[in-house]
Amino acid sequence: MCGICGFYQYELSEGQATQTIYTMCQVMEHRGPDDVGVYQDQSLVMGMRRLSIIDLNTGHQPISNESATIWVVVNGEIYNFKELRDTLKKKGHVFKTGSDSEVLIHLYEEYGIECLDKINGMFAFAIWDKKEKRLFLARDRIGIKPLHYAYFNHTFIFGSEIKSILQYPGFQKNINPKGVSLYLTYEYIPSPETIFQSIKKLPPGHFLLIDGKGGPQIRQYWDLEYRSKLYFKDEKEYQELVLEKLKESVHKRLISDVPLGTFLSGGIDSSLIVAIMKGFNESRVDSFNIGFYEKSFDESKYADIVAKLLAINHQSQMFDTGALLKGLPEITRILDEPFGDASILPTYLLCKFCRQHVTVALSGDGGDELFAGYYTYQAHRLAKLYHLLPYLIRKGIIENMVPKLPVSTKNFSFDFRAKKFISGIDCPPGIRNYIWLGSFSPEEKVTLLQADFFKTVKDFDEFSIIHNLLRSAPVEDWLDSILYLDMKLYLQEDLLVKVDRASMANSLEVRVPFLDHEFVNVATRLPSNYKLRGMQTKYLLKKTALSYLPSRIVHRPKKGFGIPVAEWVKKELKPLFVEIFDRDKICSQGIFNYNEINRLLQDHWKGSVDNRKKLWTLFMFQRWYENIFKNV
């Protein structure tokens, strides 16, 4: 696990190139505090920061083949590296270390670009083929590990984090208007766009080639598959297959030369992971959880129940509002783009707490997107019924009453869900899904953005990414379509980004068993009624989990990893909101309309409207903006 970076076809002097690569590595020290390494020749320079997990003594990077003609830097873990190494040894390849990174070198020598088909893992890597003068970059199938790149003044630059690319001499921090528009809609910026005009994200399941004969060539090597459904006569066969594949995935992720533990929220996903871990390691399983004194946001009692039931070594830490807010400055520092998911704050605190005890942690991310675990899936089914109601009842009564419901600041309150439901009810399912999940509609951005800035995005369709994804989506029905979008957008661009930045800021490696691509290939091909049956979410996974966990854990309502943002804006954060949304600051920035932001604030403070999502989204943009341009 580490941070990687580099540049190709550069026009710097040798001394400048050396200084630049070390600076690029240094700003990612949190991703790899244990080691730094650099390779440099006349065409390419690349470097890495290493967090030592496997082969602590000889796993230094960059690493090359025997003739020093192929070099690699890797971020992540290759879980099947031992099997691959055995196969490659039989083919005559000679290894000098026990690291998983070296396997990539010989795999590339043997299979070329097709080596990607052989790898099981989470990774972002760069391979330099010195003979061919070719740079080969790739990102794992699901997008657990990040990779950014820029083509600036005929120089190709890459890095695990954007802050690394920004260190390249002369690089311009020009804001991408499309990135702003996308952020306001989704609360994050989907691949391949970023907040900077010259920087892109390499999408998950894609690789990039650049050989000096032109710009980068990008191709997809893997995609989710929802067709070719798996059909068995007996429901138990489905349960057995899911459990078998999940056990295999968990077992792969237990290999480590450093202390390893797991997150435990008390929800079905993390609890099932912990139960399977217990089966592999009866002597000791270390689990970690954080809780909140605000009861509607706290899940810690459920984690305690699971820990006692499984007799594992569980540690929990409670946080009050003051402790949570102390983490805000650090969150601002670690984010290279504006990011509106407020749960990054408790995620960061959980990773910080966990890192005090272990270096690797397993997580339950992915279970909701694979098995239909969110309220939104139920809401889509309700939407079909809702549209059967007479028009006058829908438009004349319900949609007039819902906006007048009393405002509550509780987690997932009824009025919050009802108003969100109505906000997207007349849109196609794919668009509706992201109006429910996001912040600002296209109509709201007309008044939110300053007139001159709005002109730069008025012809940009923020939902074009959804249209493009669905146009080629390998799906069979409406639920497949929504699950596919959630995997491609909400999971890959929000949840995995959140976990990567929060964990790496604390030098903690997080592994995700539900997102093993072999397990994913099974889960996506399950018939839809084994995911959402009637209004029951995660039908098959819950049935499977009952062999390990009590019903009160398996069937308890989903809470999510939220924080009391609505209350904070009214109380503890009010002075900071007043300061950060200062009229002169907003007007001089040239992006947002101050009067519209002030209206959102006043309505929220009066309690007439719950603007928590909109205001937090804007707040995090301003925090990012002030941090990135503080020295300009």
* CATH 2nd-level architecture of the domain at 2-220: 4-Layer Sandwich
CATH fold description of the domain at 2-220: Glutamine Phosphoribosylpyrophosphate, subunit 1, domain 1
Shape: globular
**Which strands sit side by side, in order, in the main sheet?**
2-3-1-9-8-10
Largest sheet: 6 strands, antiparallel
Low-confidence stretches: none
Helix content: 40-55%
Structural class: alpha+beta
Global mean pLDDT? 92
**Rg estimate, integer Å:** 24 Å
What proportion strand?
A: 5-15%
Name of the CATH homologous superfamily of the domain at 2-220: Aminohydrolase, N-terminal nucleophile (Ntn) domain
How many helices does DSSP assign?
Answer: 28
How many distinct beta strands?
A: 17
Determine the N-to-C terminus distance. 33 Å
The first-level CATH class name of the domain at 2-220: Alpha Beta
